[in-house]
Amino acid sequence: MIKRLFKFVLWPVKKIVLLPFKFLLYTLLIFVILILFFQYRADYEVDTSPLSKIEYENCIEVIDSYEITLNLLSEYVDELDSVQRKFLEERLPDNLQVLLEPQKLDPDEFENIKGSLKTYLQGGRLPGFNGKALLPQAASLCRTGLG
Predict the structure, then answer these.
(1) Based on the domain organization, do 65 and 121 belong to the same domain?
(2) How far apart are CA 143 and CA 107, in angstroms?
(3) Distance CA 24, CA 67 (A)
(4) What letter does residue 123 receive in the DSSP assignment?
(5) What is the b/e burial string over 19-48, where b = at least 16 CB atoms within 10 angstroms of the residue's CB?
(6) Which of 13, 80, 123, 139 has the fewest CB atoms inside 10 Å of its own CB, making it the most exposed?
(7) Domain range holding 107?
(8) In this predicted model, what pLDDT tens digit does every residue of 57-81 receive, in sequence order?
(9) Residue 81: strand pairing partners
(10) 71 shares its domain with 139
């Protein structure tokens, strides 16, 4: 009798408490699926296959040197046309937006974003769908901007 009463009281409370978590989980899942769907439908017109270990290690070595990274990023940004620049502005994470203006990047600020940049480039090593990297923009940045 007590077990049944406990079940009748606990069951609605459990459903009410878990409902927001289920809603959040399903919303997040749908959001991630939509992002992946549109990201992999985009035609980047560059090689966005996953980075090899050697390519990734070369990029990391370049990132460790402030002067070399600044020079390569300056050349890369100067070669971008308006469409490519707009595309990168939309797709780069907020904390890496400063890389689009490398002339304004001081050594202290560069040290702060170096870890984020390495983590971002790691996404270029992971395979995604259709032969592209999990983060196609990271693979492209490593090959053309830092390679």
Answers:
(1) yes
(2) 23
(3) 44
(4) T
(5) eeeeeeeeeeeeeeeeeeeebeeeeeeeeb
(6) 13
(7) 47-145
(8) 988 888 888 888 888 888 888 888 8
(9) none
(10) yes
pTM, rounded to two decimals: 0.61
Other beta carbons within 10 Å of 117 = 22
Closest-CA residue to 100 (of 147, 55, 141, 50)? 141
Number of domains in the chain: 2
Place of tokens 């693979």: 139
Is the same domain home to 68 and 124?
yes
Q: Which of 131, 119, 14 is nearest to 60 (CA)?
A: 119
Q: Which residue has the tokens 């996953």?
A: 50
Same domain, 92 and 71: yes
Do residue 68 and residue 135 come from a single domain? yes
CA nearest to 44, candidates 147, 146, 123, 141: 141
Dump pLDDT digits (tens) for 127-145: 877 777 878 878 888 887 7
